[in-house]
Amino acid sequence: MPVRLDEELARAQSSLSRAIGRARAGEDRELAQKVREGGEALASVLCGLLKMSRVHAADNRAFDAPVAELSRVVAGLHELLGTLQLVTVEDQVYLNDFRVRTEGKAGVRDLGAELAKHNVGGVAVHAPLDGPAVRALVTAFAERPAESGPRTALAAGLAMRGVRAVELLPRFRFRAQSEGEQAAIDPAEALRRALRLCEESFDQLAAGRVVNPLPLRRAVVELITVGPATPELWEHLGEALPHASHAATVALLALLVGRAAGFGQAVLQDLGLAALLHDTGYAQLPAEVAQGPDGLARHPGEGARILLRQRGFNAAKLRRLRAVLDHHRDHAAPGGAPSILGEILRLAEDYTTLLRLHGARISPADALGAMARAAGRLYQPALVQLLVNVLGRYPPGTLLELDDGRYARSISPVRSRETFAQPFVRVYDLRTRALSAERLDLALCGAVRRTLPG
């Protein structure tokens, strides 16, 4: 392992250790209480100002006290948390991933409806707001929503008024459920949402913004609900920029292994979220560094720093931090084995990278074989076996020659023990490199004659 990576890990681990100590001392419980109380005040005052703007212009003296109060609340929370992300999800409100109490508090609960008029789901506040900035914010929201692209139009109105510290966030919603049944989720759409959020997260980080984890976590929940072995998820991974496709592929692989390992829902969500964010450290590095060997060494530490920007610690955040820090550490690394989530990300990361760099010369099964030979040194042996178990004899992407002479590509991981060597496939044209629209189930028809590289 390069010395610089050891230094990065040591610094980040030291910071993490101090954070764990603070959490154990009870500081985090105190912080959580402050955040929830501050979030309640922020949501209530902001909602009140937006409602007042229907009756009075923002320069009316009736605004003096609530404008000063909002400015004070934002300043205090910004000192405590840094960037603030106030998000509404249906009738719930979150501040930096902490849920704000809304029961019996109409002013807090109504904020979502006020923001939704402009198709806004929340606001990120990147710096304290003085009185004129608060009044300009309220004035912009008081404008009639644009018929087309209201959120974009509102953002332009804020920029025109010089309010550049406030970022408008899209609307978020929970899936409707009836009688305890999970509403149907289209797998392809769930994946596209995850890919889009990955791209947006990288863009935000490159621009120096803080990423809101709530929509990413929701995307992970959808992938878990759909089932990470669903063929439609694997067929659409290439429909995004390379870094987003890579992050989503690593997430699906990690979720497959985590589910096979028996992880509960909460840990699976943390694993999937860490997977989507595992390479975001690259967005913090200059291009010439990110593309060289120093980028490989430095990006885990940079990724952990990104997660550390949102102050406050709980078990879920610590799991994600360790996973991002550890995702390039060897199983037999000096100082002890990496965290279990970090080991899973390392497996998924290396498998995906092997195929991306050498896929024209090796098959997915060859990649698994190479990793199996490194078990005990680079990888936890039991996790390697789980990866083999969930991907099957013909992992997604494997080029096959069928017994009738046609060629096909596997498009699904293992569905059951009985179909370990019988994936879903699509017929493949070697000349045009096109896949057919028809999906074949090798458990019902056809058989594999041999596998091919590429």
Automatic annotation (TrEMBL):
Residues 245-351 form the HD domain. Pfam families: HD. Gene3D superfamilies: Hypothetical protein af1432. This is HD domain-containing protein. The lineage of its organism: Bacteria, Pseudomonadati, Myxococcota, Myxococcia, Myxococcales.
